[in-house]
Amino acid sequence: MKKRAFSGIQPTGKLHLGNYLGAIKNWVKNQERYENIYCVVNSHAITIQNNPEELKQKTFELFAMLLASGLDSNHSKLFIQSRIDYHPALAWILDCNIPMGDMNRMTQFKDKSKKNPKNINVGLFNYPALMAADILLYQSDFVPVGEDQKQHLELTRDVAIRFNEKYGECFKIPEPLIPEVGARIMSLDDPYSKMSKSNSSENGIIYMLDSKDMIIKKIKRATTDSLNEIAFDRERGGLYNLLCIYECLSNKSRSEIEKSFQGYGDLKNALAEAIFAELEPIQQEYTRLTSEGGYIHGLMTQNEEYIKDIARTTYEKAKSLVGLI
Ligand code: TRP
């Protein structure tokens, strides 16, 4: 039996190269190793997003983009979180088993609250419990996530271990799977903050649907330094980030990459080419999938019975263990 991997991705913002190289490309690459379940976590998105039409559209786009990126239904089951009611239902049971002090330590809540002081809601605080429910419902062995989700994974493991001890065996204890390369793609114009909609300006982000010209323009403008010397050196953040992106897209070792380029101009040209070569087939597939509206909607529901069965089994067990009738 294959081990099961579960991960979630939020439909906020347009999908970009940071999402793709940090998560999706690895999901696709490893999809034959595991039985994968991937969830578009739109219920998490309403902790921040409050434009209903936009949320619907983004959910649809993300779902299509994940398929276009190469997730294949033989190995990876893709579904929409809000369509399975067991997620918030299990989150409630977990809520009642997470000490306030543990939740208070979550750094992502603090960061998000600071960034958006006008909308600090209870859901945002409670976000990690819903995430734990996502993972635990499916008895997941592994959770492929970025480094920034490590603390949420620890909380998930802690609540699962505590629950099993207190009420009886119910949840499998999941392990994080954090990729070494590409886990953190930084912004092109501010290489010390992560490439993300909330941190970066438009020039700092390459979107999945950017044209070749856009990609070339953004890479040309990317921050480097004046040494014009190619080396993987973390201290030189701009250059390091470009080299890491190239590394993710090529099959070359770091030392081979360092020898491949004369200077920054040379590197930037090759990098823009490599990015477009990766994105072009995905863009074509995305266009094909979305040109017929009903097609994606059909795919959205295709895995639901399978998913619901797994979730129901875990939920009913947890419910009964805590004495809910
Ligand atoms: N919190 C994750 C993120 O922002 C998204 C997420 C929600 C998730 N539920 C999950 C990731 C379950 C892995 C497993 O990246």
UniProtKB/TrEMBL annotation:
Coiled coil: none annotated. Its EC number is 6.1.1.2. GO terms for cellular component: cytosol. It is found in: Cytoplasm. ATP binds at residues 10-12, 18-19, 146-148, 185, 194-198. GO terms for biological process: tryptophanyl-tRNA aminoacylation. L-tryptophan binds at residue 134. A motif ('HIGH' region) lies at residues 11-19. Keywords: Aminoacyl-tRNA synthetase, ATP-binding, Cytoplasm, Ligase, Nucleotide-binding, Protein biosynthesis. Catalyzes the attachment of tryptophan to tRNA(Trp). Belongs to the class-I aminoacyl-tRNA synthetase family. Homodimer. This is Tryptophan--tRNA ligase. The lineage of its organism: Bacteria, Pseudomonadati, Campylobacterota, Epsilonproteobacteria, Campylobacterales.
